[in-house]
Amino acid sequence: TQHNRLPITQFVNIDVGNEAPLVMGGGSQDNAISVSRDGGANWTVRWGGDGGGFTIDKTDNDRIWATSGLWGGGLLFRCGISFDRGDSWNDINNGVLASNAWYTRVRSDHAGSPHIYMNSGRHVYDAWSNGGFWFWLNRDPFPANIHELTVSPITTPSAVVYACLDSPNPGQRLMVFEDPDWFERSSGLPAGVRVRKVATHSANTQRCFAVMSGLGTPGQKVFRSENRGVTWSNITGNLPDVPLSDLVAHPTDDDRYYLSSEFGCYRTIDGGLSWEKWNEGMPGAIIITELALADLSADTGELFLAAGSYGRGLWLRSIAPVVAAATPQPAVTGLLMRPTMPNPASGDTVVRFRLDGPTTARLRIYDLRGRVVATLLDGAIAGGEHAVPLDTNRLASGLYFSRLETPQGVAVQRLTVVR
Question: What is this structure's pTM?
Fold first, then answer.
């Protein structure tokens, strides 16, 4: 579903909150900082200038940090903080040196009392949550400007910081901060190519993902690390040679990743062995600049993926939480659920079961919130093997449960719908 009343908006960075109704927004070229506080139904320009970085505090969705471009005076951008979801802003630039930086990033480690991080020129800065004063995180400037900055969730003693440099040269591409030192960790990534972004994992501070810039590296587009970039493994699979921009890992399914590019989105459900185009509802050649995960699992049990585009506004899609397998239940005398096939399903599938004798039965499909989304049968039924068709085309992607109820007992089977 498109959630932007101005579909020509060119988003540079976006973010979404983790409370309902969703707070979301981003910085856009020539169009300032825009914010929606009702899940995208209404949008308002909240801060002027050339919009850039944008981060929502996951511990308090009222608090937002952003960067905005300025003209003149040597300092081409400013960083600001809002405590009221964008109604008012305070500049927080103390300690930042003037530079020729353009679109700067601002990131949070999302701790209870978060640290925030920002890049300017060849330096990374950090500050306490309200940004009273910025301090260099690297006293010696890097060999090239920083074009992308990402931060892991809080870990001891501090977050892991990934600074992608505007350079294709060996040893000058990816700087990683593990308190108190910086390390260059592009070894193992395709030579002669910039690292577009390093995506962090919301639940695993050791795991990260590198996506490569531009064209010309077929078969070498996406890489995963289990040790903060010390070593990399190629998970490009069958991806075409397209310019990539971002990756979001599912928070509870280690094999499910979502990838954005200048030709829309891709998805894998097998850890990167194979990728599929994941563009339903979007224009065919949409340029996606950044992805953001809205994890409302503690609030409404839902997960959403937001995609900011360059010239097509902001888009939102529901992705189902993946829950742990249920504790095995004792067999119920008189009925047996067979595996649903195919499962995962993207169209027609069949719910199969066996009854030892004639009875009455009710077969329903439930979503993760316990709502009935389909009733497949309800009434008298003969004994024996049964195969009940289910058309999943009208169901959103996600996890569902088929529940068979009879006087003899109840049996439940999981079903995954993919798009």
Answer: 0.77
